[in-house]
Amino acid sequence: ERSSLRLSYSRLSHLENCELQYLLADELGLEPGGGYQAWVGHLIHRIIQGIEEGRIQRTLEAFRAEIDRRWDPGRFPSHAVSEAERRNAREVLARNWFERYGSLPAPATERRFSFAFDGATIVGYIDRIGPVPEGEVRITDFKTGRSDNAGRAAENLQLGIYYLAVRECEDLVEEAPDVTGVELAFLGGKRTDPGIQVQAWSIPAGAEDAYQLRMRERLAGLIERIRRLDETGAYVASTSADCTFCRFRPLCPRYPEGDRIFPIAAPMPGGPEATPAEVAR
Questions:
Q1: Where are the domains of the chain?
Q2: 175-233 pLDDT, tens per residue?
Q3: Which of 63, 138, 143, 67 minimizes the C-alpha distance to 108?
Q4: Residue 172: exposed, middle, or buried by beta-carbon count in 10 A (0-12, 13-18, 19+)?
Q5: Selection from 105, 218, 100 nearest residue 159 by Cα
Q6: CA-to-CA separations, 8 to 15, 20, 181, 222, 243, in angstroms, rounded
Q7: Where are the strands (E) in 156-244, listed by range?
Q8: How far apart are CA 39 and CA 22, in angstroms?
Q9: CA nearest 100: which of 62, 66, 140, 67?
Q10: Contact in structure between 5 and 120 (CB atoms under 8 Å)
C-alpha cells in the first residue's frame, strides 16, 4: 500500500468513468496534452483571474484586448483554426463571462485547496466563489466548451468536492461562509445557442447535510477502489464508460484497434497451461 494518496478531481473522475483510463492516464502518466482547446481554456481562466484580482481592467474591451495580446497562433494546426478560435474567445467566451459576472466581483478566484479525507489528501483549485445574478453566493466552475452533454449540477462530482473543500478548509470557510449553491458555467454556450449556459443547483434549506453525506460517501467509495486496485493490480475497462474524449482507444480491449494483432490460440487439451501473457485479456 502506498504511503500517501494525493487525489484531484481529474484523477477521481477518470477512475469513476473507467479503471483502465485511470491506470493509463494517472497511474502511468500517459495522458497526452490537451491540445489547443485546453490552451484556450487556460488562457481564459488566467484572464478572468487577472480581472478579479484587479490587474486587468474590468471591461469587455479590456478582456478582448488581453486575448489578442496573449494569443499564440503557433498553438494551432493552421491559421484558419487559430482565427476561428480567437474569434470565438473574443465574441463568445469573453462576452458570456462579462454579461453574467462583469458587475459582480468575486471574493475568491482560483483558490487552491487541500484537505484530508479518509486517509487521502484531496487537492485542487476552485475557479470562483462569489455572488451570482440570482442573488445567491455560489461555487462556480467555468467551462470553455459547450453544455450539450452536461449532467445535473447536484450530481456533479467536481462541484461536490469543491463544496466539501469550502466546508473543510479554514481559509475558505472564512472567505465564503454563506455559499448556498453550486454551478457549472459553460462560457461556450451550446450548439443551438451561443449564450452562456449555466447548470446550477441551489441547495435547499435543510438539504446541506444530505448533500455533504452523499458526496462524502461517493468520495470514500472512490478512495476505497483505489486501495483495492493497488492490492489487486487488476484494472478493467468499463463497459459503461463515456469514451467520447478518451485518448486510449488504441490500448483498450473494448475497441478493435486495441485488440491483439495476432490471435492467441487456446491451449490444447492436456497441453501446457496458458501463460500470463495469454490470459491478460
A1: 1-26+106-235, 33-103
A2: 777 899 999 999 999 999 999 999 999 999 899 999 999 999 999 999 999 999 999 99
A3: 138
A4: buried
A5: 218
A6: 11, 17, 21, 12, 20
A7: 181-186, 197-202
A8: 22
A9: 140
A10: yes
